């Protein structure tokens, strides 16, 4: 990951108050570095943003409803229906929303075909159980080792990108932010920033209540939190893991996959458990210090200023004092200041 230096907030670049984005329920993204928050499709229906909760949900269900139907009628990998489903599973990273694992710079990327094929095969197994729920796609991170939160977030973004563009347009028009037409989403004007190399980048804003730090399980803590919602699945998982001394995340995903896909009832129970468990990113806990970082870059570093004076010409003892004071200052802000 490239080193990040002096990232710029969307609000700072366009000269608006951060409170305007907060009032609109939108993330104030950095324009030159990704924020490690991710869109969780399970949160779409719960969003307070009407465009997302209605049109966004409808777009998601229509898109993945078509995906499920194609998977269902496919007789073998590589046939026409299978290839049609592949086209609907776009895993390229959208560079417009600023969410993900990127460092400096926000250029999109694509994921290997193996990941897409793994998702397709698991979807085929789920469809064979009789499930036609488009939200099955949001569970892939629980079952597939190399499917992470960014994968789920990115294909969700691509499916609801027109709704996100509409939300962005409405906010910018109300806030006096200029819009431009570009090739990112033809017919949809978006705010445009120019980087230090003179390259234009179009930005799409995202509602705060459809993101979280881990939209789909990336470690056992998140898997366990979902599993405990179902007594049946919890007991089955514990039973199958009993003979493994130190089960890895891969072991646990494999076991959970076997249990969840063993019958239509167990899969539906697991899907409902995940829907019930999922929560949006909590700004009060601020696990990734996103809001803390945003406040620092928006208002400056006054709270982090060390006012003590040091005369390094006095020798090693003064240098040692500077080092100890710096460590103590850093410790104070990390442990007590949520830095």
Quick recap:
The chain is mainly α. It folds into three domains: 10-215, no CATH class; 217-277, no CATH class; 301-335.
What are the salient characteristics of this protein?
339 residues, two-stranded antiparallel sheet, 14 helices
Structure notes:
It is a single chain. With 339 residues, the protein is mainly alpha-helical. It has 3 domains: 10-215, no CATH class; 217-277, no CATH class; 301-335. It contains 14 helices and 4 strands. The chain has helices at 10-14, 18-23, 50-73, 80-88, 113-128, 140-143, 149-159, 161-175, 220-227, 231-241, 249-260, 264-277, 290-299, 316-335, and strands at residues 38-39, 192-194, 200-202, 211-212. Strands 1-4 form a two-stranded antiparallel ribbon. The protein has a two-stranded antiparallel ribbon with strand order 2-3. Strand 2 and strand 3 (200-202) form a beta hairpin. It is globular. The two termini are 21 Å apart. Residues 103-108 have low confidence and may be disordered. Residues 93-112 are annotated as: Disordered.
Q: What is the strand and helix layout of this fold?
A:
Layout: H1 10-14, H2 18-23, E1 38-39, H3 50-73, H4 80-88, H5 113-128, H6 140-143, H7 149-159, H8 161-175, E2 192-194, E3 200-202, E4 211-212, H9 220-227, H10 231-241, H11 249-260, H12 264-277, H13 290-299, H14 316-335
Helix pairs in contact: 3-4, 3-8, 10-11
